[in-house]
Design brief:
Blueprint (H helix, E strand, L loop, with lengths): L6 H53 L2 E11 L2 E11 L6 E2 L4 E6 L2 E7 L13 E8 L7 E2 L5 E7 H4 L8 E7 L5 E7 L9 E3 L1
Parallel strand pairs: 5-6
Antiparallel strand pairs: 1-2, 1-11, 2-8, 3-7, 4-5, 4-9, 6-8, 9-10
InterPro entries: Flagellin/pilin_N_arc (IPR013373), Flagellin_arc-type (IPR002774)
Keywords: Archaeal flagellum, Cell projection, Cilium, Flagellum, Membrane, Transmembrane, Transmembrane helix
Main location: other
């Protein structure tokens, strides 16, 4: 009628219960560790990607070498800006760059043509380029510290020609988001000159 449970049987049941609780805790800890490892890996890859993009926004920009204006009468009708890679910059495709021209007749957003200046006719919202020095034939891409490109702004196609004393700011924004500002003032006298350094 009556069953008597001995101390050994009680200890066996308690031991099995403890074992089940221990296994459950190990499983929960393993799942939590897996989630933490996955989250840490995701955050690490995101932070690396963000760091690379931030670095490109700072370094992947052009650097001005010289700015020259073509004199036509007593006005400047074409501006040539010679650029190269800034120190530490990667490849810069000038066809993917955008330019903001801020001059006496207004502000203009310009995009690059897909052809060299000698092979194209510019429309009102475009600038072009001429490869000055290019060791590997990449033409519109600055991919070497020795590369040089002339950015050609035919001012008469999108604004009025520049007069003596006019001030202009050109902001060149590369595909990576890096911006270079170039400011110049037209000399006070353009008479008897064919070109002037700006």
């Amino acid at each position: 009628m009556f069953e008597f449970i001995t101390d050994e049987e009680e200890r066996g049941q308690v031991g099995i219960g403890t074992l089940i609780v221990f296994i459950a805790m190990v499983l929960v800890a393993a799942i939590a560790a897996g989630v933490l490892i996955n989250t840490a890996g995701f955050l690490q890859s995101k932070s690396q990607e963000t760091g690379q993009q931030s670095s490109k926004q700072v370094s992947d920009r052009v650097q001005e070498v010289a700015t020259v204006g073509n004199v036509n009468g007593n006005q400047i009708d074409i501006v040539n800006v010679t650029v190269t890679q800034a120190p530490g910059a990667g490849e810069i495709d000038i066809q993917n760059a955008t330019v903001t021209w801020i001059g006496p007749s207004g502000t203009y957003q310009l995009t690059s043509t897909t052809q060299n200046y000698s092979q194209t006719t510019l429309s009102g919202d475009q600038f072009s380029y001429i490869s000055v020095k290019d060791s590997d034939g990449s033409d519109n891409v600055l991919n070497d510290a020795d590369d040089r490109l002339n950015l050609v702004f035919d001012v008469s196609t999108f604004a009025s020609d520049l007069n003596e004393g006019d001030e202009v700011t050109i902001k060149i924004n590369t595909m990576a988001g890096a911006t270079t500002s170039i400011r110049f003032t037209v000399p006070e006298s353009l008479s008897n000159k064919q070109a002037v350094e700006l």
